[in-house]
Every structure is written in C-alpha cells, then in structure tokens.
Amino acid sequence: MLIKPTTDIRSSEITPKDVYLNRRNFLAGLGLSTVAAAGLGMKELLSPSTKALATDKIAGIQKSQFSTTEKITPINDVSHYNNYYEFSTEKEEPAKMAKDFRTRPWSITIDGAVPKKQKWDIDAIMKFAAPEERIYRHRCVEGWSIVVPWVGFSLSELIKRAESLGKAKFVQFTSILDMTQMPGQRQRILDWPYTEGLRMDEAMHPLTLLCFGMYGESLPNQDGAPIRLVVPWKYGFKSAKAIVKISFTDHQPSTTWNEANPHDFGFYSNVNPNVDRYHSQAHERRLGEFRPRPTLMFNGYDQVAGLYSGMDLAKNY
Ligand SMILES: Nc1nc2c(c(=O)[nH]1)N[C@H]1C(S)=C(S)[C@@H](COP(=O)(O)O)O[C@H]1N2
Ligand SMILES: [Mo]
Q: How many angstroms does the Cα of residue 180 sit away from the middle of ligand 1?
C-alpha cells in the first residue's frame, strides 16, 4: 500500500501476487522453493534458517462462535505475503527480514485517560483470558483477502483491566519504534512509529481481537509478533502489529495512514464495497484463488452495523 495518487489501478494491482503464488505452488509441487529458484544451493535449503516459522504452540485454545467456516488460507501464504512497512514495502520481504526481531522482553504501556499509567508484561497480558481461535476474514484495502485462524481474546479483556475513565472516547495503538531492528524505519515512508485508533465502542466490540497467535502457534514475527490487533470488519491497516502502547483519549487520535493520505485511508475504514477509496473496493481476491469475489459490507460482519447507525459511511469512510 504505497502512498500514491488515486489513479484507478483496478485489479492489475493484485496480478503479480497471483503470479507469485502460482509460481510458488508450482515450485512446491516439484519439492522446490523460491529459495531454490533464487539460485541458492542445497546447504541453504536444508539449514534450519529456511524453516518457514519459528513459533510455539499455544496451550488451551478454545473455539469461538465468531469463526467463519470458510476455507482457511494456507499458513505459508499468510506468513509470506505481508504488509509490514517497518521492515519493507515488498510483501515477500518481511518473512525474511523480521526473522531475528526480538519479541521478548516485551511490555505494553497503558496511558492517557486511565486512573494510573501502567506497564504490563506481554506474558501477563496473555493470561488475562483464555486464548480463543477466531477464524476471521481479513481484507486489505489493496484488494487481497485471507482467512486466518487467529489466536487471542477480545481486546475488551484488556480494556476492562485498564479501567479507562469515562472521558475516554477513543483508543490509540502505537507500534514499536526501533530502527536498529526495523530497516524500513530508517526511511521516512511513513511517520514512525505506526499508530492506529478505534472509537471506544469499536474497541470494546467482542469481535475486536487482541491477537498473539495464528494457526495454533505464537505469531510469526512478520504477522505482528508478539502482539497485534485484528479488527475484521475494517481494512487490514487498522490492525496494528507489534503494539507497545495503548492510550485512551477523549478525542479522535491521529493515525499513520490517515495522516499520510486522509482521502484514501479514513479513520473508520470499514470494509465497504460501495465506497471507492484507494481504488474500487467492490471485489477482492483471496490469496491462492484466481477468480475475484464480491466484497461484503463490513467484510460480512453485519453485527457491527449498529455501531454506525445514523452515520454516513461515505463521509465517515
Ligand atoms: N505496525 C504495522 N502494522 C501493520 C502494518 C504495518 O506496515 N506496520 N500493515 C497493515 C496492513 S496494510 C495490513 S493489510 C495488515 C497485514 O497483516 P498480515 O501481514 O498479518 O496479513 O497489517 C497491518 N498492520
Ligand atoms: Mo493492507
């Protein structure tokens, strides 16, 4: 999602991806990988560093009533096609470049409209509630989508413990700032650190997931380890990765993409096939599929419609 003028690039945007995936699937069928295709020898292929993921199983995961029964996107696609501009603007790069990213020790600072500023360790946060598997559709504003079995629990479990004060109407999420580990931050592609935000009722909605795993294991670094947000009825950029701060405010917080290009990336950014922003949002392509499918209002999560009653979603896009 490079910042560019709103020329209509339509589905041509997604085509290289299909070529990439099909090529990979083809190579996988031959028992080869793109690593081999890139001309690396057998030694590199067999070394542990080429292992797809270095993650840990999460114990005691419960099923969720919010899960879709749609076909889950293969883990290898989800973990090798990532938007993570702190590492790279190329989607195949974060899987490689985030490999050594340090996810411990890690804490999240809770500040703003709360009785007292706090700093919580990630391992304590992960015990706030039982981990659930939430199989969600995930829709990027660029036109691709995936179905992912995320692991986490409702963000409301954390907000309850923060005891946010009555004047808190919004929540801001801040991702880590560390240019020693994140080469993308040495470039001013975006105004670092990455920030995102939600209105309090959106943040408290049971669908809004504080996420620390996927496919039964801890998150791969490139998918936002150790902890990220997943807001399934909004475009993917609302789901900030590698969160280090959660701030409660009485006003709408600034958010990175909205500041970069407010026309294309609204504060709300609910998935909406009827509002063309960035480019037409009427259709999407599931990773690994060829035929585009129609995009659903709120990405199919109709239960959130009540949050926006009386709002013009073309204006408040
Ligand atoms: N910190 C941070 N969070 C981020 C991004 C990013 O570049 N940096 N990219 C966003 C975008 S545009 C998308 S589509 C999703 C992608 O999540 P995934 O790589 O797990 O599919 O992460 C979002 N969260
Ligand atoms: Mo995205």
A: 20
